[in-house]
Structure formats: C-alpha cells, structure tokens
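Troubleshooting: if your tokenizer reports a length mismatch, compare your output against this known-good record of 229 residues.
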Amino acid sequence: MPASTSAAAPVVLTAKALLLDMDGTLVDSDAVVERCWRAWAVSHGLDPEEALKVVHGRQGHATMAALLPDRPMELNHAENAEMLARETADTEGVVPVGGAAEFMAALVGLPHALVTSADAALAAVRMAAAGLPMPEVRVTADCVRASKPHPEGFLQGAAALGVDPADCIVFEDSGAGIAAGRAAGMRVVGIGPRAAAHTPTAHVPDLTAVKVTTTPDGTLHLTLTPPPA
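Known-good structure output:
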C-alpha cells in the first residue's frame, strides 16, 4: 500500500467504483456524535475524551465493547439501539462536509455506494439533514455482521456494484474505516484531520479538493489537489 500523499502537487488515481463512508466523509455529524457519546461515557464513569478517540467509524456496539470489554455483548447491543434512536432524533449541527454536494453531483450515473456504520434510518436522516442525495447502492449497519475495521462492509459494496475490490477506491475519515478499506484490498482516500494519521493512500482536507472525471471505457479518474504544504 503506498504511503500517504501530502505534497501539494495533484495526485491522480483511477478506479472502476467509489465506496463512500458517511459520517466525517460526506456528512459532518461530529456535533451530534460528541453530544451523544459524551453523555454515554459520563453515565458509565468513563472519560469522554478517551471515548471519543474510539467512537468514530465503528458501530456503536463495537465502540461500547472496546470501552467496556468485560460487559456482555447483549447489553452493548441493547444500549446501541437506544443510542441510535437518540442520534437519529438529533440533527442539530449536521451539515455537509465541504464540497460534498458537488462531489455527489459528479457521481450521478457512475458506480458508487455508501458504506456506513450507521443503520439505514440514521443514514437516511443524516444524508437528508445535510441535503445530500442517498446513493442507490448502500451498505448500512443493518447489512453486515462485523463493524469496521472489519472489511465486510466494503467487500459487500464492491460485490453489489459488481466491481473487483482492487478496482475500488474508498473515501474515509476514521482510523477504523481506513483500516477496513485497506483490509478489503482497496485504496483509500482519507478525508479531513482524523484521516491524516492513518496512512491512507492519499489525503485531502475535504471534498473540495477532489475532482471526478471519466473516460469512454468507464474508468473513473480522481484528481486530488491538497492545499499547499
């Protein structure tokens, strides 16, 4: 896997399909995530700052298992259902990541899928709150047995699009998500500050730095233009 690219010169990657995380990649939901998970951490006697280091990219029950490893998983699943309900009801501060609307518009008619650790209801609410179109192909928490950093979700996305994993590029913001994409045998474009520390194939601050074009044979060309170093 190539090292992370941080130079100011444009980077060009090619692919047959794109697999898109949602939170932190297309939708900035950090305000909601932090409100809900800080409250949960405090209620369990945990340091909220330490909890927030774990939560991004994972399904809620996987976060709970990491933070409370001796607790029965059935309790984690029960509390995750409550957490999902709270997060779905709270859209204050949910906005698109910079450039997300233009990026999604450029993907109309091109092979792409949403691969998110949110369940279907939460994904629908957050994409709508951010004013972004929901991809026709999507893999949500309801569709998989294993949470990121397991590659199951991304492999499902590639299969649903009929594209070899090696021909897919993942867009992710979190360490767990980047690890999942790499485990699936895919290249990863890291989005935003969280991604920089996790050696994605390339890294940009947001989606304003990404331009998507196609060739007659259907190959997707991504031109990534990071800001000056």
